[in-house]
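Case study.
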Amino acid sequence: MLKVRQLEVAYGGIKAVKGIDLDVAAGELVALIGANGAGKTSTLKALSGLLKPVAGSIAYDDADVTGKPAYELVRRGLAMVPEGRGVFPRLTVAENLAMGAYTQTDATAIRRDFDRAYTLFPRLAERRAQMAGTLSGGEQQMLAMARALMCRPRLLLLDEPSMGLAPIMVHKIFETVRAVAAEGVTMLLVEQNAKLALETCDRGYVMESGTIVLSDNAKTLMTNPQVRHAYLGE
Amino acid sequence: MEIFAQQLVNGLVLGSIYALVALGYTMVYGILGLINFAHGDITMIGALVSLTAVQLLAAAGVPAPVVLVLAGGAAMVVCVALGVSIERVAYRPLRHAPRLAPLITAIGISILLQYSAALIWGKQYIAMPEIVEPTRIVIAGAQLTSLQATIFLLACAIMAGLLWFLKASRMGRAMRATEQNPAVAGLMGVNTNKVIAFTFVLGSAIGAIAGLMVVLYYGLGHYFMGFMLGLKAFTAAVLGGIGNVAGAVLGGLLLGVIESLASGYIGDLTGGVLGSNYRDIFAFLVLVLVLVLKPSGLMGQHSGDRA
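After joint prediction, the assembly is written out as follows.
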C-alpha cells in the first residue's frame, strides 16, 4: 500500500532522513521507533505531504505521490495525526471534527461519522461545544484521532500519540489504535514508547540518525538484544 | 445635546465604512500575519472605478438604482481581480520570507496603485454626479439623509453576512482553521492557497463596496484618498484587535463615533484654536493610545494560544 524508496528529507542543508526504504502492506500495523531526533517525524511529514522530500520516491496505492501536497493525499485516503495533536484551539470540538470531514460530501455519511466519533470517545460528545484549546492533553489527542478518522482514511499515520499523556490516557489511546486497526485501517505508528508500539504493531522499523538500522516483525524486535538495550531500557 | 445626537449618527455612518475597510485588513492579517498596506488603495481603486461607472451610466440616462448596482459590481470585479493578482504575484512568493519583506512589498504595491490611479484618473479631485435626491429623516433630533441610512444599513448587512459566513459555512470554517494552523488545515484536505486567495477575494470585494460608499458620501474621489482611509481602517482593526473580525466591526464603528464626536466638540474645547478640520488627529491619537495601553485591542486574543 505504501512503498518508500531511498527517501531523503532535509531542512536547509541538514539531512534529517538519509535515504530510507519502508513498506507498509494493506491491513498492516507498522511501528517506526527510535530516539529523539532520529528522523521519525520528518519521515511522516514527507509521507503525509507536509514536507517535500529532496530525493527518493513515495508510492501510495501503486501511484507515485512523491512531493504531492497534503490536501491531495487526504482525498486519496492518506491521513495523519500530527505530533503535538494539532487541534484547532479556537474551533469547538464539533468544528474540529467537521474539519476532519472536510473532504467528505455525503451529509448522511458525515452525520454517521460524527456519531461513531462520539461513541468511540464519549468525552468528546460531552465537550462538543467547547473550544478545543480548553481540553486536556489527553482529550486533545482523542480529538485529533477522532478528527483524522472523519476523513475515512485507508492509511493513517500517527505521530507520537502517547507523548505527554498520563498512563491511563495512553492506555485508552492505544486501545483505540487497536480498535481502528481492527476495522481494517492500515497504520504507520511513530512512537518513542517502543515497548507499547511493538506490543501493538505487527512489524517494526528502528530508526537511528536518519537511517533505518533494523526492521523485522514486532515480536522478533522485542527479543533483539540491541533493541532491548537501547529502547526497552534493559 | 443636538450636536451630540447629530455627531453620533454621522459617526456611526462613517464608522460603518471604516469597519468595512478594516475587515479587509483584519482578515488578511489573521490568515497571513501580514498588514496589507495596499488594502486602502484597493478601496481607492474601487471608489474611482465606481465613480467613473456612475459618470458614464448617469450620462447615458440609466435609472439611479441600476447605476449604483452596476457601479458597485464593476468596482467589485476590478478590486477582486487586483486583490487576487497582488496576493499571487507579490505576497505568495514571500510567504516564508522574513516578515519585513512582505510588509515592505505591501507598501510598494500601495504606492504602485496610487500612481497607477494618478495616471488613469489624473491628480485632480473628481466630482461624483449627484444621482440620488437627498431626502432627510429626523431621528431623536439628528438629521439623517436617506443616503446615510442606506450606507449604514448596507454596511451592517454585509458585516452580519460575513460574520455568519465565517461562523457557519464550510469555507468560513476552513478559513478559521487555516488561520489557526495552516499545516494541519492542509492535512484535513484544505488547499490553503485557495483559502488565502479567497480571503483576498472577500476583503477586496467588501473594500470595493466601501469605496463606492465613500464617493457617494463625500461626493469626491482622488488618487490619494486610499491612504488616509486605509490608515484609519487599519487603526480601527488594531482598536478592535487585529485578526479578529468582530473586533474590526466594533473598532470601525467606535473610531467613526470618536472621530465624529471629537471633531464636533474640538472647536468649543480649544476655544476655537483648532477646528473640525483637525479631525484626523483623533484616529491616530486612538492608535497611539491602543498601542500603549492595550496592544492586543478590545477583542484581540492573547498571542499565547497561537500554537
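Observations recorded in class. The interface with chain A takes residues 170, 173-174, 176-177, 180-181, 183-192, 301, 305, 307 of chain B (CB under 8 Å). The longest strand of chain B covers residues 136-139. We will return to this complex in the next lecture.
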